[in-house]
Amino acid sequence: MATMKEVAHYAGVSVATVSRVLNQPQSVKKKTQEQVLKAVQALNYTPNFLGKNLRQHQTKRILVVLNTISNQFYSRVVQGIEDKAREFDYNVLMMTTRNLQKNILEAITMIQTKIVDGAIFMTTLHAEEQISELNRNYPVVCACEPVEDTEISCVSIDNIQAAYDATRFLIERGKRRIALMGVNFDLKKTDQKIHQYGSAALREIGYKKALEEAHISVDTTLFFPKGLTYKDGASSVWDILKLKRLPDAIFAFSDAGAIGAIRALKVRGIRVPEDIFVVGFDNTAMSEVYQPSLTTIGQPQYMIGLTAMELLFERISGHVTKSIVLKHELVERDSTRLSV
Amino acid sequence: MATMKEVAHYAGVSVATVSRVLNQPQSVKKKTQEQVLKAVQALNYTPNFLGKNLRQHQTKRILVVLNTISNQFYSRVVQGIEDKAREFDYNVLMMTTRNLQKNILEAITMIQTKIVDGAIFMTTLHAEEQISELNRNYPVVCACEPVEDTEISCVSIDNIQAAYDATRFLIERGKRRIALMGVNFDLKKTDQKIHQYGSAALREIGYKKALEEAHISVDTTLFFPKGLTYKDGASSVWDILKLKRLPDAIFAFSDAGAIGAIRALKVRGIRVPEDIFVVGFDNTAMSEVYQPSLTTIGQPQYMIGLTAMELLFERISGHVTKSIVLKHELVERDSTRLSV
DNA sequence: TTGTAGGCGTTATCAT
DNA sequence: ATGATAACGCCTACAA
User: What is the C-alpha separation between B294 and B73, in angstroms, rounded?
Assistant: First the structure.
């Protein structure tokens, strides 16, 4: 609550000296330093960063914007961001959008109004244009989700290839009716700008590519675009059970969805992997723990975070823009493995 | 990038007028308004909140400090915080401490340096003193975890009672060797200040109370204070298996730990609930989805968040301090239910 | 209705 | 080595 001026007065020096003691102590006589520090203590002074930031045109803070923190996946990405940020003495703040455009705009405002030096977006849709616009004047990086605008730095895996790998994996094991579970991936598919619809759209492309290669026709009645949660997975299974012919495999765009599906199948007496194979996405902790353990596409989450932060620093200092694609991996577990 | 001054110049008015157009339009002539707004558009002006906040001594932002976002539990609490915050036009930022005191201090600095108007702490240990000190001059609320300092507003469940209920539930079903899995709860137990060691310490007290009431002696070889993750739960089971006599029930302080334990038990051919009952904590989504589904103590997460934010507002405006205890519930599921 | 000017708490550029 | 003083971008009496 005490201000620098008061400290200066108390110590019998000028504000300039106080500032120096705090920022470049070597340029102040030892004795004066002590006086000032004593005053700081006595008045319980803490600097007001608003003033400092205002003056210095930088905050040493960045913002991470994500849909929700309930998704295990992001925790590790954020860890990567934080570790890299700390190297440069930056702090990492987070903000949640809950899939509401309104909240993304709020986040954008935070950057425009100089509360932070830049931002990493891990959200899809809802505001591509505004983010693009923002990117023209402020440092922005996108992570995990693809973006259309090539002027925006972006780091993610190759979602098409990843989905292709998963689908192909299933086909090679004799599966031909492969259900797809995820979000919105069949919306507005006539539009050219597929990347606008996020990673899910890309994964759908990879899936189709694998099917076509194997001369299997795409059956859109096998698409269940409910969402990524346990509940979405389970609820998709209720729909699946209405089909005349059941699928022989499910490819879900999230581990949670996959597990929800397995659970719902079990309830109906349908066994995984005996009756149906299931593949998830993200390789979160649960995929190893659930029974049966889950075959899934692993993303290098920590590395994504680390890289995103690096790109943001480059953007903050030099306006360099670049995009990076990191390797995924298919982790085989019991949900696609028939015991001998 | 444009400043208010430039807008004023462009519009041929004074900065005061520009400010007024933006903040109290009714006090400006329609025509002048239009001129100014045109200038704002033309120059792509966005206000700099550093200046604004500095001047107004408020930011309309609060900070939520949590250990990790990988814990499902917090997502819902944060949702409650956000919903209430939005009512008052506040934004919610989050920061992660990863259980490092260093990071808590960083968070404390954020408040002292006026980047936010107040903070909600959902972390234990590591910095009680500093938070107490902070609370004297800045608005602070603690949630989920108990705090010693009665001057700090706090909202949580009655952890003693909750653990008592869970333990008693098991005892009533004939269980007598009940293992405990959680964090650090047996550390420094000689110290008076039990609340310093967080909810886990309180839960241990409730557990003991139930045992004593049933004239069962407390066996500390049944304590497994590894942590709250899947891995911790599983790894605790390896230790449990080394015991001469297995427990007939496990009470874990997290759902994830409980599920990790069940999984590890299954691997060894030990069945839940037939051979061992398991109870978790938090009633997260997974507890319903796992097989067997998990009996657990449910916390009113959303309500905790909502209430915490309310308390913070009271603290911000009037320096009112109060603590609130919310109701928990025991949710019975398959992990403690023998099929007929 | 609008403009002038002072101040919010810092830092940085001058002098001294 | 230290002190005045002018920014930084904004808001708000007070005056006009």
Answer: 15
Q: What does the CA dihedral B103, B107, B108, B113 come to, rounded to 10 degrees?
A: 130
Instruction: Specify the nucleotide whose C1' lies closest to residue A45 (CA).
Output: C9
Number of domains in chain A: 1
- Contact (Cβ atoms closer than 8 angstroms) between residue A335 and residue A170: no
- Determine, for residues A50 and B290 on separate chains, whether the beta-carbon distance falls below 8 Å: no
Find the mean pLDDT for residues A136-140. Answer: 93
Confidence of residue B325 (pLDDT cuts 50, 70, 90): very high
- B141–chain A Cβ distance below 8 A for any pair: no
Helix (H) or strand (E) holding A329: strand A329-331
- Any idea what the CATH number is for the domain that residue B238 is in? 3.40.50.2300
Residue A164 lies in a domain: yes
- Strand-pair category, A91-96 with A61-66: parallel
Q: How far is A100 from chain B (nearest CA, A)?
A: 13
Residues with CB under 7 A from strand C: A 3-5, 15-16, 19, 22-23, 45-48, 50-52, 54-56; B 12-17, 20, 27-29, 31-32, 51, 54-55, 57
Nearest CA in chain A to B136: A1
Quote the CA–CA distance of B186 and A109 in Å, as a whole number.
47
Residue B191: φ, ψ to 5°: -65, 145
CA–CA min distance B92, chain A (Å): 7
Cα–Cα distance for residue pair B147/B324, rounded to 1 Å: 12
- How close is the nearest chain A Cα to the Cα of B260, in Å? 7
B250 lies in some domain: yes
Which residues lie below 8 Å from residue B202, measured CB to CB, with a gap of 6+?
Answer: B146, B159, B160, B163, B194, B195
**pLDDT above 90: percentage of residues in chain A:** 81
Residue A13 CA, nucleotide C13 C1', distance (Å): 18
Say yes or no to pLDDT of A129 above 90.
Answer: no
Residue A266 lies in a domain: yes
| pLDDT tens-digit readout, B261-317 | 999 999 999 999 999 999 999 999 999 999 899 999 999 999 999 999 999 999 998
Does the structure show a pLDDT above 80 at B183? no
Calpha distance B227→B221 (Å, rounded) = 16
Q: Structural domain of residue A237, as residue ranges?
A: 159-298+330-336
